[in-house]
Amino acid sequence: MKATKITYYITTGLISINMLFSSYAYLTNPQLKWAFEHLGFPDYFRIELAIAKFLAAIAIWLPFRLVREASYIGLAISFVSAIIAHIVVGDDAFHTIAPIVVLAILVVSYVTYHKLPKTVVGKSE
């Protein structure tokens, strides 16, 4: 139980930090504007994704099961879409592996979340 709890908090913390930093970078880094264009996405999508990732980084900690589940689902869709987009445009391995690694961390966070008792992480309906 203790190892599961520690794993949950570490992986969820890593996901949240990653999402907060990427949200900030999406809005402030001109190279990421080019990266989204390179992937074929319109500029407004970069802004929408930054807002969604910021909200998910916060919502993943809220003690409401449905909100937390929606955050996990939204982030998973985002990472899978990133993997597909990088493969389709023929990006190098680094750009494809990065979202795979973050997706793996998200999966560990999700699995450990469901292994914890309801009282530990506030799994309310």
Automatic annotation (TrEMBL):
Please state the gene responsible for encoding this protein. Answer: ICEEaI(6)_PW2806_17272_17649
UniProt keyword terms in alphabetical order: Membrane, Transmembrane, Transmembrane helix
Where would you say this protein principally sits, based on its record? Answer: membrane
Q: Is Transmembrane included in the keywords of this UniProt record?
A: yes
* Record-annotated membrane-spanning stretches: 7-27, 47-64, 71-88, 94-113
Task: Quote the cellular component terms of the Gene Ontology held in the record.
Answer: membrane
InterPro entries this protein is in? DoxX
Q: What is this protein called?
A: DoxX family protein
